[in-house]
Amino acid sequence: MPHKLSKGKGPVLLIAGILLIAATLRGTITGIGPILDFVSQTLNLSATQAGMLTTLPLLAFAIFSPISSGLARKVGLEPSLMLALVLMTIGVIVRSAGSTTMLFLGTCIIGVGIAIGNVLLPSLLKRDFPTQVPTLTAVYVLVMGIGSTISSSVAIPLFYLSDKLHITAIPNWAFSLAGIIIFPVIAILVWLPQLNRHTRPSADTADIDSHSYLWRSAAAWQVTIFLGINSFIMYIFISWLPSILTHNGYTENQAGYIEGILQFSTAVPALVLIPLMVKMKDKRGISVVMALLTFIGIIGLLFAPEHAVIWVVCIGFGCGGGFILGLSLVGIRTHNAQQAAVLSGMAQCMGYLLAATGPIVFGFLHERTGSWYAPLLMVSSFCIILIVLALFAGRSHVIVRTKDGKDIVIDDTKKQIESY
User: Fold this and answer.
1) CA torsion, points 219, 316, 116, 398, in degrees to nearest 10?
2) N or C: which end of the chain has fewer CB within 10 A?
3) Number of domain units in the chain
4) What are phi and psi of 410, to 5 degrees?
């Protein structure tokens, strides 16, 4: 049965568990950005290999997201989310062993855990708190940003703390990554009471009708590519921003804190956009603004790096807002929960596959050119594509399929229902 926010300790504990899982989903992968140079130097990784450390979780998202709902149908939502937390914990331990093999293996395991959590948490919110979804979504995204901010900000201090404590069993960078284990461990402890429940996902996750025609729909691909390019840009900066900053004269500590500002800036749009979007039928204008903010941030970082904090806030707000808009478009452009679930799976699968190439391509360009100029110009060109794409993806037109099998796009909701 759905919970109400104001009654009983059970819902409060459930919400606490949801928010701790949200913090873990982002916090376990963002802590590596500030210490990526140290990891690369110690293990002799190329820039392309270093980019893979951000890419591997994205590939795991794309591969394992489609099977997560099947897992929840068999064992229940709550045990499946506990499995996600356990996998992330194991991944953090393996990743911190200190070797190249274990680093990549642990990163893959973390990615699988995050993929399960990414898919099932929204379904849990919709099932248990159907009337508070916008509010809890805003808080959920904000907590994800806080988790990633903490993870990025403490990475360098933990790195140097290893020397002060004279830890020699594992490298400094491994100790820094191991510190992130506090996220999944606390989440596991708070989530334990939920294991008494073995409930199924909400209908939009569990029972997905066949909507394969979406893969042939131009409107569906507009939403998918919008999300993909937005994530492509975001994960490049999650991976490489500290390296760009240290190259421009910032200390490792400063770069780590600015990376934390980037992470927090991606969460802030949730508080602004979610209540605003309810009043806006057409999302093209706001989508263009978010893409334009990202473009301004990248150009500013390229030509005036001494004001990096300003530009990083622009990039974080633009990409974070673009991500929220992209997810909302999945619901806006579809006519029922089943079609929305299929479009969401399509957008996340293909979007994350596109995003996975970002850190690798960016690192490869840097390696080939020996500077950050060409890679940043490349990303800015993708922003221009994103701005143009926003004019199409942000429309309020709903994708429907008529009884004769033809795909049409109708703007008016009443007419759309009648046609369907």
Assistant:
1) -20
2) N
3) 2
4) -125, 140
